[in-house]
Design a protein that fits this description.
Chain lengths: 696, 246
Amino acid sequence: MPEPSIAESSYAPCITACPVHTDTRELAELVTQGEYEKALELLLEANPFSSVCGRICHHPCEENCRRAKVDAPVGLMKLKRFIIEATRDYRISLMEKMLPLPNRKEKVAVIGSGPSGLTAAYDLAKMGFQVVVFERSKTPGGLLGNAIPRYRLPYAVVKEDIDNILSIGVELITEKTIGRDYTIDDLIKQGFRSVLLATGLSESSTLNIPGIDSKGIFLALPFLKTVLSSRPPVMGKRVVVIGGGNVAIDVARSARRLGAEKVNMVCLESRDEMPAWKWEVEEAREEAISIMNSWGPKAVFSENDEVKGLELKKCVSVFDPNGRFNPQFDDSDTATVLADNVIIAIGQRGDLTCVRGSNVKINPGDTLECDPKTLSTSTKGIFTCGELLTGPASSVEAVRDGHRAAKAIAHYLETGDLLMQPLIELPALEELPDETAEKIKKLTPITIELLPAETRLKEFTEIERGFTEKEALEEARRCLACTTGALADEEKCAACLTCVRICPFDVATVEKTAVMPEEKCQACGLCAAECPAAAIALKRFGTNQMKEQLQGLLASIKDKMVTRPLIISYCCLFEVTSRKFISEKSESYKKSGIYRIMIPCIARLSVPDILSPFELGADGLTIIGCSEGSCLYPTAEERLLRRIRQAKSVLEEVGVEGERIDYWKTEGSAEVSWTSFWEISRRKLHQIKRIGSKHP
Amino acid sequence: MIVAERKPLNEIKSFVENYKKILIVGCGTCATVCLAGGETEVKVVASGLRIGFLKEDKEIEILEDCATRQCEPEFVTEIVERVKKEEVEAVLSLGCGVGVNFMADKLETIPVFPGVNTEFFGAAVEPGVWVEMCAGCGNCILHLTGGICPIARCSKSILNGPCGGSKDGKCEISPDVDCGWNLIVERMKKMGTLQRLEEILPPRDWSTSHHGGPRRVIREEIVSLSQEGKEPTETKEAAKEKESGR
């Protein structure tokens, strides 16, 4: 599994919660910088199923987002979707850039083309192994391609990920069923040095109750597969879905779209115990699906062998004191529910015909014998991953185990040994303390309205759109940038208490030297800008990077004819609503003498930062901050204004006009107002002589 | 803490404008804490000078450094070595006067200019405001005056005050200046020790102050230790020199 790009003592909880440790915090930052391509690279490094996960992930990143304590979590999943949608062409070129891959002769067979199998195939192919993926269906993707309804996950999205994986040379053979068309031994004979079983939990479990063989009763997975086909099943008016998990919800919502007027879900669990994601349950309710909690099926009643309804018994408890599934019923408390169709969605199991005829062992409970740390089955060289290994799991967990399987197989092929890979839990940054949360500015999250329920039910088109660029930039700004805060250099710190006195979040303290506890620091950078010992740096905000950018800019024009007056403009990155403005227009502005440096919060500018453009040869400096009232940090603007005054007085002391520094607040957006600010600064500077003649 | 204040840049500029290569040295202790001469202020001064020289088309190389304390030989040696190695023509110290003196002593022929005005020994009474509280007179009488120093905080440094210029708790020199003796009286009143002021303090011996000439403090135990430590090294080196050819 790829580790986050930075080694930290603690990580943002969005990163630690993600099964593949996607560096979501960095992603949000890259989005604000308009660096969508870099963000994509980071995403794909962690997860080749990023298109899929941008749609249907259960997003533990958001569930663990520390911003939840302030207002609401950052919409990280939709930011990922935005990155994917904004970089489609780049993604294709990125895959091309990966070629040629190292060439290793060992062949690996992957059985099953779900997210786990294909992730493993992708990783192994990147390492140079010859990978062939066998898939029993016509459509690759496992449940993503053959079960999840399109209103949640359009196939084009799945295809995008799969096409990328296949584009680097993974071979896919479809409509070949292991155990029927070929066996593991056949593969070994064909020269495959290792086999990865990633067939998932592909079979729906059924119920053993009277009347279950009546007509009109479906099993969830075959039902969903037919829904995706060109001949979807015809539904009666009343449909009962048995089950309370995510598959049951998919089934129920699909049934509604196929014309069922009344859909009842019957599940053993109470509302709180239901395994389905709460947002899925909510969306199902919006689509007029009723949920009968704490009921279990007792018998099917039918007429002429056609299902007519279900007799139910009260479920008094689902789990035993040890938390194991062990439902208890009150047979005296019964109910009936009418149904023209019943769909059973009570869980899935693996199809172990894949190991038939081989010496791979099966556990008594009809599961594969395998070691969760090495991912090895009982037979050397035969590995497993995905739900066959873990039991029911999410797509992103499947991807995680795909990565692990690839590592396990590569290690095995290189050394002949098994690799111990216990699941890594990264240390997470502590919870945001209440007293800090209170001081953080609330920012309304960007929410995307789903299509209205009545529209949704007409067809299977996707019910939710992604962020526009403007929305993505606005939402990314809400990231608290956890773990990127201030760090004081003990050697330099003079314990002067300046940081303590100016910190707007009451974070900084001085013990022997300054300390900014990471779980509290909001990375506003005011202390770093004001520290007289230059002892404080923000862990992620590159002050030096900014200076290098400035020096690079000015050095690049040193020998050229430059438009005068030459204006450096420090601009608040957060006010831009399209990166087009950041990058594409940049060149034309340069021609007119405006050189922009985008900064995530200009309140971080120190007095030397404000002066340095002049010593490097600029005629003027135009600082553009965020619009009135939109600054994230209390006192930041006031502090900056004081620093600007100080810088102006330094200029005056050496005989240079302080009015060469302008400060503006954005009006509307960058696109709307900045050009006119530059124009005003330029006109004024025309009246002022150049600072020196020797420098450009 | 020693409190200092940066000199105006045009004054600083006039000190160094005739050199080709200068080094600005900050001080990481008092001068940093009073925001007059720490590493950030070094950057500000360097930047300001560069801009000023750019305006005059003068090419002067400005180097930047910051000593942990400019009043310790170990820290200053590093600076002195840099000055020699990089052929710096003049040094601008943003440390207090002690730093300027100390570096001047060590730098023999290289001029050392003061970048700050050293003001007093004081405390930060609020963020950004420092007030003089000690005059370093070498003979402390704070136990007699309620912990408030009449030498530093009375404009006349009188020992038996207040004088007739005390009005509404302020000194006659300025309504912004507290009368030191008023502070003493008020505090001793609160402590219930006011009657002690009835004792007239006799004229003082000012020889402990600067009137007795430059002062020095010697801690025998440290002095002798470090000297003992040095001698064997020197002897060894001398022995080596002898071996290698004499």
